[in-house]
Every structure is written in C-alpha cells, then in structure tokens.
Design goal:
Blueprint: E1 7-11, H1 16-25, E2 32-37, H2 40-53, E3 62-66, H3 80-85, H4 87-98, H5 103-107, H6 110-118, E4 122-125, H7 129-134, H8 138-153, H9 160-170, H10 172-190, E5 194-198, H11 221-240, E6 248-252, E7 257-258, E8 262-267, E9 269-270, E10 273-274, E11 276-279, E12 302-307, E13 309-314, E14 320-321, H12 323-330, E15 337-338, H13 340-351, H14 360-367, H15 373-393, H16 406-422, H17 425-430, H18 433-446, H19 448-455, E16 461-462, E17 469-470, H20 490-500, E18 502-503, H21 506-524, H22 550-561
Parallel strand pairs: 1-2, 1-4, 2-3, 4-5, 5-6, 7-15, 16-18
Antiparallel strand pairs: 8-13, 9-10, 11-12, 13-14, 16-17
C-alpha cells in the first residue's frame, strides 16, 4: 500500500517498537499518525518527541490517543484492579467478554470507538497483547478461588462469588477471541487496508529450557501462558488473513530481546516507581523458625531514604536492565537481541507490499498443507460409491449434524424437501411460494421416517403456520447458554429458524425461489460458446437445472450468499 496521505494508527506507539514504526513511516509522508498508548502521559510524551523530531510535518500530523483497548470505552481509563474490585464494573467486563458479540457490544468497545473516530488506512499493532493477557495470572486467580472454596467448605464466610467472577474475567482465551473479533469487525467497518501485528514468541526465542523464570518453576506457568496466548493469537490472525473482507493481515514475530531506547545513569524504577533502598543490619536479622512470611511489614527494616541509582539500559516497556543483566541475556546462546529499528523496517516493507520473509502469516500459508489434486481427482469416486450405497439400501444420506453447524443440516434438509416435492429447479421457480410451502409440509406430515431423521439429530421443523414446532428432546438451536427457558419474540424466532430449524413458512420458500433465480441468472450470463476454465458453476455443473443437488446448493449458499468462500488455497 502507498502510505502517502494515508492515516496510520500505531497501537503501542509510546513503546520501543511503536516509536520506531512512527519514525520509519515519516519519509513516506502519511497524512496523519495516531499514536495510541495505555496512559495519557505516554501518548503525549511520544507525540511531543515526534513533533520535535519532525517539525515540518505540522502539529496535526501526530495525534495522541490513550486507553485500554481490551475493555469497553467507558472503562478505558479505569485501572484493571479497580474494575475487578467494583461489582458493577466487573459485571460490565464479564458481559462484554462472555456474552454474544452483538452490535451494542461492538459499538461500546474501545477498539471500535478508536477506529471509527480516525478511520485508519493502516494499523500497526505493537502492543504486547500476549503479555497483557497472560500476566493477569490465571493461575493465581485459580489459587485464590480454590483457597476460598476450602474455607467455604469448612464453614467460613468468604467472598466466593467475587473470587469466581475475578477468575472468569481472567480467562485468557475468551479475552483473546473477543479482542480479535472486535478488531476484525471494526477494521472491516472502517475499511482498513492493512493490519500488521508485532507479535512475540513469549520466551525471547528460547525453548522450554529458558533459564529466566517468574517463580520456582522453570519455565513458569505464567511464562508459558504468554507463549500459549501468543500462539493462539497468531492462529486467529491466520484466520483473519483468510477472510476476504478483512484487511491484508501480517505478523512480524521477533524471537529475541528488543533493545534499546537509551543508556543512562539515574533512578531505577519498577512499575513506574523508584526502588527505595532499605537495609537489614545483622543485629536485626530474622531468626528462622517453623514458618516464613513472604511479606512482613513488622520487621525492623531500615530505610535509607534514597532510591536505587545506577547505570542502566532502557528497553522500553520491558523495563530497564543493568549492564550485567543485559550482557547475560544478550550473550550468544541466550536471548540475544534485535533492534526496534530493524523491526520497524520490516513492518514498513510489508505494509508497502514487499516480502521480508519475516511475515509469520505468510510463512504459515506456505507451510500448511492445502487441498490437493489427488483429493479432487478422487472426489467423484467417493460420491459415486455413496450414491451406489444409497440405491442399494434405499435411503438418502442428507445430514447427521455431526459436522455442524446446525444451519448446514437445516439447509440440506430444506433443499432435500424441495427435491422430493418438485424434482428440479425449474419446477420450484414455476410454483408459488405458498404452493411450495404447502407441498413440503405435506411431505413432512405424511412421512414419519423423514420427520424422525430430521428431529432426531436436533433440528426442529417449524410448520408453515409459524406457530407449530416439531422437535425431539434435544435441539441444537438456540444453543444452551445457562438458561433453559427463553422468551419467544418475532426476532428470536426468526433468528432460530435461520440458524437451525427446517423452516416451512412461505417467506422461507420465497427465499429459496430467490436463490434459484440468482443461480439461473448467473448461468444465463455465461456465453454458450465459452468452454474455458473461467467459470466453475456452469449449466453442466447444475445438471441443466434438471435436478436439485442439496450439497451443491448449500455449498453455493455458504460461498456466495453468506460470503463464506475460502480465500486461499
């Protein structure tokens, strides 16, 4: 993509890589760069630095934005701990995380508001998403719940509900899924052209023998969670890259430590606060007994009333390292390191359409095993064998609702009913929707075996009156989500019938007629003399409309009507 006069959104723009990406973009003359960070101070600091470095670009070129993109807009500036402590805010978080992704959930999200306001052509995401999610520490939340459960079982009063809700709010995969869902939908709506993620391996490129840990485990569960989330994130982006209406999706995944921002002497800060020096003279030493407190404010520590000061190398959001620490992790055979400028160069080249060889999504595309010629060659043989067995056993193999989704089974059976009642597409087009509805319902009423095949796999049958439902004990739609009894409204009934009920109402028969008209119109536009490889679904493909093939029809519906066509081989 040509970057000139385009709007670029850099998520994590204050960080080491984000800042380098902003600087790397400037020679390409973007119209505007939105510099997004978690804190207002970070976003403004990054923008001030860019304005000083590029004064000719004009102040309007750099726009600061701040907030937590993983929550709704209302909560974007509220610390996560405060959200989890407050019952009302916690419920908002859980609703947005675990409820269905509806339009209101999308539109109140921070990501949607940010993208809808600035409508970026290019998004570069340098937020360490895996760390942000995994370091919420699901394991510690689980330990707290188990501890509360033990107390509750022994008769103690505990805040079991709060602890459980905090655990639910910490689940990694729901957070990651909802984040990618909202990001995709938002970029689709604002027509973003390119999305580049700066990912992570989680271990700086090292293996399970990594010597750096966060606990007595080696490696720690939290560290492995980071790698797990990073891998899951990559696979979701792999799917987004295979979605036709998504932006061009790429991921650069550094497998080394990223350094550096500056080398200096000064206060050593941890989580934004100076490390205060304290002393424990030998005469105040603690005598070890049967137990050891991990934290103890009652001990006679001696404050030296000054912060720790030393020489350090600043690695941005990963914190500051001493000379010894940096030398140890950068030595050959350890993490080593890569500079943010090298990452930014790769990002720029990929955005412009180049191939650096470092795009993980492209690597996965080339490494995965795609559909094969051999499989295609053998397809007809498998179909012929199944048809022969259908003839031998006097049955029809329509749907079992094992593959899923229920909509697939519903559509296959509706197409099969049309096949039984009318034989071919032309006959359906000649009949009125009312006649079609009446004839297919007559089949359902007369054939108990056919009814049983449908409802026994969890697919109900809605009769033409729209009020009578034929069903078994189990139905696949609506899915069970904690409530066994749901209110029926016109909207909900329509959604359920669409998603997984054989629908015999007149308006659904009109929908089938419309599909057949579109198919015949598509074929009629193919010149009779065109026998090239250009067209897949020709008159021959549809058997000159002399029969109805449920599998082919539903494949067409999923590809064309529902825009679910495979994008890559």
């Amino acid at each position: 993509m040509d970057i000139q006069n385009k709007t670029v959104l850099v998520l994590g723009g204050w960080g080491l890589v984000g800042s380098a990406v902003c600087r790397q973009m400037m020679p390409e003359k973007p119209k505007r760069i939105i510099v997004a960070s978690l804190l207002e101070s970070e976003a403004r600091e990054a923008v001030d630095a860019l304005r000083q470095e590029f004064p000719m670009a004009g102040k309007s070129c750099f726009v600061p934005w701040w907030g937590n993109i993983f929550v709704r807009h209302e909560l974007k500036d509220t610390p996560r701990d405060e959200i989890l402590r407050n019952e009302d805010l916690r419920q908002m978080l859980l609703d947005d995380l675990l409820d269905a992704l509806t339009l209101p959930v999308l539109e109140r999200s921070t990501i949607y508001r940010l993208l809808n306001e600035h409508k970026p052509d290019i998004v570069v995401d340098s937020i360490n998403s895996a760390t942000a999610i995994a370091y919420q520490d699901l394991f510690q939340s689980a330990r707290e719940v188990r501890k509360a459960l033990r107390k509750w079982k022994s008769g103690e009063q505990v805040l079991l509900v709060e602890q459980t809700e905090r655990l639910l709010a910490t689940l990694y995969i729901p957070q990651l899924i909802r984040h990618v869902q909202i990001l995709y939908r938002s970029m689709q709506i604002v027509d973003t052209g390119v999305y580049v993620k700066i990912g992570t391996s989680g271990t700086g490129g090292m293996g399970l023998n990594i010597p750096y840990t966060h606990s007595e485990e080696r490696p720690s569960s939290v560290l492995l969670s980071k790698s797990s989330v990073a891998g899951a994130h990559t696979m979701l982006l792999f799917l987004m890259a295979r979605t036709p209406d998504a932006p061009i999706t790429k991921e650069i995944k550094p497998t080394a430590a990223i350094a550096w921002k500056r080398v200096a002497y000064g206060e050593i800060r941890k989580r934004g606060k100076p490390i205060q020096l304290i002393d424990c003279p030998p005469e105040s030493g603690l005598r070890l007994n049967d137990t050891l407190r991990l934290t103890d404010d009652t001990l006679p520590y001696k404050s030296l009333h000054r912060p720790l000061r030393s020489v350090f190398i600043d690695t941005g959001e990963n914190g500051v390292f001493s000379r010894g620490e940096f030398e140890a992790i950068s030595t050959p055979g350890q993490m080593e390191f890569v500079t943010p400028e090298e990452i930014a160069e790769a990002v720029l080249y990929e955005v412009k359409g180049g191939n650096t060889g470092h795009d993980v999504i492209n690597a996965l595309d080339n490494a995965t095993l795609a559909p094969t010629y051999r499989a295609g060659f053998m397809f007809d043989g498998a179909m012929d064998e199944m048809k022969a067995l259908e003839e031998k056993h006097q049955t029809k193999s329509i749907a079992f609702e094992i593959l899923g989704p229920p909509r697939l089974s519903k559509l296959l059976y509706e197409a099969y009913l049309l096949q039984l009642a009318f034989g071919d597409i032309g006959a359906v087009l000649k009949a009125s929707a009312k006649t079609i509805s009446r004839k297919v319902e007559a089949l359902i009423r007369a054939d108990g075996n056919l009814r049983a095949q449908i409802i026994s796999i969890g697919i109900p049958i809605l009769l033409s009156d729209g009020l009578t439902l034929l069903r078994g004990q189990e139905i696949k739609v609506p899915p069970y989500r904690g409530e066994n009894e749901l209110k029926i409204t016109e909207k909900s009934l329509g959604a359920w019938a669409h998603d997984g009920w054989v629908d015999l109402r007149i308006k659904n028969m009109e929908r089938w007629k419309s599909r057949f008209r579109i198919i015949t119109d598509q074929v009629s536009r193919i010149p009779h003399q065109d026998t090239s490889s250009r067209h897949l679904r020709t008159r021959a493909y549809w058997h000159s409309f002399k029969k109805i093939d449920p599998g082919k029809l539903v494949g067409w519906i999923f590809s064309e009507e529902e825009k679910g066509k495979r994008m890559k081989a």
